[in-house]
Each structure stands twice: as structure tokens, then as C-alpha cells.
Amino acid sequence: MAADNAYLLDNRQREAGRRFEAFAELFDPWTLAHLERVGPLTGLRCWEVGAGGASLPAALADRVGPTGEVLVTDLDTSWLTGLADGGPDRAPVRVLRHDVVNEEPPGGEFDLVHARLVLVHLPERARVLRTLAAAVRPGGLLVIEDADPSLQPLACPDERGPAEELANRIRRGFRALLAERGVDLGFGRTLPALLRSAGLREVAAEAYFPVTSPACRELEAATVRQLREQLTAAGLATPEEIEQHLANLRQEDSDGELDVTTAPLITCWGRRPLH
Fold this sequence. Notes:
The chain is about 35% helix and about 20% strand. The protein is of the alpha/beta class. Strand 1, helix 2 and strand 2 form a beta-alpha-beta unit.
């Protein structure tokens, strides 16, 4: 991540840990399946950019194995403790505080560079993507995963009652706050063209769109709790509406359970040519 005070979801807050756990449950299986599908991981030198939490780097280190190497970077590394304490069957893991916007890539070329839900928050996203592409060795892979909230903007696509209407109104408020901070709400769909313009080949992309799950509701609740003050200060929701929405998210009976989704996650990958 970049050293940018405009980042809306501050990773130093307690709720960030709940969000990382929900992200891991929702997206780690999808991400790892794609990383494994685009080529064997054993023995690779990998750079995980803006990791946030530790779950994905740990899983990547397991798959790379002791003959590989995993570099994990973020502006805030406080959620990455314990990664260097892997066993004999895991790749060596190095955790480094790094500003991907203002600092050069941290040393050498990589077989695999991966970033998830990082670039969409950066005004310099296109330039950073080119920097990441340049850090990939010839024949190596760049995998970028980012959201596209404009592609599917609703919290509850099935708006069947007041609880769903409230969820969608609060999600619109969240999107308004993101847009004010310079987030490109249609960024995910631009990734294939951006990877090609960075000189990569064999570019392909897929989207992941979980319609409902307990992890979707947990992610929604943690995000709303984290943004409570910003939403109310901007007049996008009242304190009472936020409390009602959080109560609705806690409902687990068949009649009251909310079917909450996330923005589509676009996973895009490309290979740096050998020549």
C-alpha cells in the first residue's frame, strides 16, 4: 500500500483485522486456485504486494516450498507477524515495510508478482501497475486482483424489503466516500488493457462474485463499523440507520437473514515475454 492519508479503510483500526479475516475466507480459495492454475508455484520467487493480513502470504509460502522465496510488503506490517516463523516445508518469508507508490521495487526480479485490492485505492494505480510489471522476470507472471463496484453496486441485489433497501443505501454511501478519496469504482474491468499496455502477453481475466455467505455479512459489518463516523459526518446515514443495519446483519433466521454480497473481484493475469 502507499503512504497516503486518503486511504479510507485505515488498517491500523481494530476492525481491519475482522475485515482481513473475512477477505481471507471469501477470496483466498479463489486467489490461490488462480495462482496455481497459471503455472506451478514450487520454487518460485514471489512478491506479495500490499498483503494486509497474513493468511494469503502464508498459504503462498506453503505452496512455493523451501526452494522458493516469498517477499511480503505493505505500508503497515502490523498484521503480518509470525510469517517468518515457517516450518522446513515452507518458503522463506521476508516481511518488509514498503511504499509501492514512492519506492522502487525491493530487489531483483520475481517469478510471480501478486497484488489484491491494492491498486484500486491508489491515484497512481496505472503507474504502479507498470512498475509491478517491470519487476516480473522474463517468462514470469503478474496477477492483479481488484474490485469493480460499478459493475455491481448493490449490497443486496434482491431488494425485497426495508432491510435490503437500507443496506443498499448505506452501500451507496460507502461508494460515495470511496469516490471522494479518488477510488476508481470501475477499475477492475480496465485490468486486461492495462496489463497489455505494460507489455504483458497471454492476458486473461475472470470475475468472482459471491452472492451471499456469513463471510459476506461479516465483511459488511466490519466495514460499516469502521466507517461509522465518516458515514454519519457526511450525512450519508444516521447513527440509528447504521445500528439498524448492523442488527439486520446479525439476523440468522430464515426469514430475516440478509443476502449481502461484495463488489465483483476481477482477477487478471499476464506473462512477461521472454524476449
